[in-house]
Design brief:
10 helices, mainly alpha, three-stranded antiparallel beta sheet, single chain, elongated, 2 domains
């Protein structure tokens, strides 16, 4: 409404012309609310602001209120459930009387046999100008430092170096698993640059997954008994010293765990 029209109406009718002018504060607030309603990302509110008829506006308003109420309901339910700290416990029992027996690996305290390897070893060190001696009765501390390198050369060569190591056939005096005798053929051999030729009992082969022994085989409880001949007279000086005490220490640990397992089996049964 223009100022001229307002003044004409105020002349005809005894009214205050200022009273007919729109309130600028109210108009500004309504403009801000309408702009917010048109640009907000809240679902439903833009539909209310854009409605051209009262029916559309009622529809959008009711839809907005209904879905807002549903959202608030699930929100409150989740908050109540969270502060209720619900817990769910699932307990299952698996009875398995038979277990796979672990793989047991044995290695001699000396990786090589002194009486067999000493001559080729001296040829190796002399050819590299590391030593200059032909004494095959003993070696020095300096010579012993090159033994691991010599073993590595043997393992990387195409020639068979099995004679340098301790064969299981000469070490194994007695073998029994759950009361049944076992032989050297029941062990799988592999080479180690530190321990020489080692042997594993009950090793799992990729080509045969059913070769694993069970603790209940032959009606036993998983007992492996070995009696070995260490052949310490063929040990290499400076290379196998102090290993006997380590063997006894590891043997005591093995017996401790074996007794714990046996006690657990008796208690469980």
């Amino acid at each position: 409404m223009s100022d001229t029209t307002i003044k004409h109406i105020a002349t005809v009718f005894p009214l205050n012309a200022e009273a007919l002018k729109p309130d600028p504060t109210f108009h500004r607030r309504r403009s801000i609310l309408r702009e917010f309603a048109l640009n907000t990302t809240t679902a439903g509110i833009p539909g209310i602001a854009k409605s051209a008829s009262i029916h559309n506006r009622i529809f959008w308003t009711l839809s907005f209120l209904v879905f807002t109420g549903i959202m608030m309901y699930f929100l409150v339910e989740n908050i109540i459930a969270y502060f209720g700290y619900p817990t769910q416990t699932s307990v299952s029992f698996l009875v398995q009387r038979s277990e796979s027996f672990p793989a047991v690996t044995i290695c001699n305290a000396s990786p090589v046999r002194f009486n067999v390897f000493i001559e080729p070893f001296l040829n190796y060190t002399n050819s590299l100008n590391l030593t200059n001696t032909n004494d095959t009765s003993t070696i020095t501390q300096v010579q012993a430092n090159y033994i691991n390198d010599f073993i590595q050369v043997i393992l990387n060569s195409n020639t068979s170096g099995k004679d340098f190591f301790f064969p299981l056939e000469s070490m194994l005096l007695y073998c029994s698993y759950n009361g049944e005798n076992c032989e050297a053929t029941d062990f799988i051999s592999f080479y180690s640059s530190v321990y020489g030729l080692c042997y594993t009992f009950n090793a799992q082969l990729k080509s045969n997954q059913s070769n694993i022994r069970q603790t209940t085989d032959n009606g036993g409880s998983g007992t492996l008994q070995l009696r070995l001949y260490a052949q310490s007279q063929d040990y290499v000086p400076y290379l196998a010293e102090g290993t006997i005490s380590k063997i006894y220490f590891l043997q005591n640990i093995f017996l401790f765990f074996y007794r714990c397992i046996s006690w657990y089996d008796d208690y469980d049964s």
